[in-house]
Amino acid sequence: MKLALITDLHANRDAVEAVMVHSVLQGAQRYAFLGDYVGYGPEPGWVVDFLIEHVRQGAIAVMGNHDSAVVKGPTPTMVPQAREVVEWTRNQLDDHQLTFLAGLPMSVRDEDRLYVHANAFAPDQWAYIVSRMEAIRSLHCTEARFTFCGHVHEPKLFHLTTTGKAGEFKPVPGVAIPLSPQRQWLAIPGSTGQPRDGNPAAAYAMFDTDTHALTFHRVPYDHEAAAAKVRAAGLPERLAERLVDGD
């Protein structure tokens, strides 16, 4: 089964639509959404409705920190821009959409795979996996062979051997990486809706559950048009600039 891994959509309809078209062409048979469907972007209602429909069709979806903030209130550590957009987003969503976000699980375990937004060691504390050290800590907290996370807006791949040796790969878009079932793996597909690695193209990954091959993808889309929507919504200018420069 080809499983599309999509995360950090951030209310960016243009990027989400581009990724969905690409994933269909790549043969996606199921979808796993790894959190942060809202926040930063101008079309939260559309993205939440999109997610509701895909979950109805059997997709996996977990809660992200921006989703949680919209229904529970922002955390003290949220930067001012994020807090501002949380309040704006809440006013864009109806009760049904807010109830759906509130009901999302923090993590989902499915066969040998764990899906979670931030990490496996404290999913509701939203700590980032920015280095091998955090990746190892997360892998030590689950027996799942493959962990798929969001939260970090850059594609990353870590592994842990049975002898405790850890390593990481720098993914190359479009190149399949065979994930040995003799190791534990933690993969971060990168952000669909707000990439931060200097490349504005939307990011996602495809995992073949039969061959255990993981392929990271980048999908160009009209990020200038998406940035214009951010400005038209009256959201902070920096959020529009991030879509243009991918940083």
Automatic annotation (TrEMBL):
| One GO term describing the cellular component | cytoplasm
**Gene Ontology terms for molecular function:** phosphatase activity
SUPFAM superfamilies for the chain: Metallo-dependent phosphatases
The segment(s) forming the Calcineurin-like phosphoesterase domain are 1-211
Family designation: Belongs to the metallophosphoesterase superfamily. YfcE family.
What protein name applies here?
Metallophosphoesterase
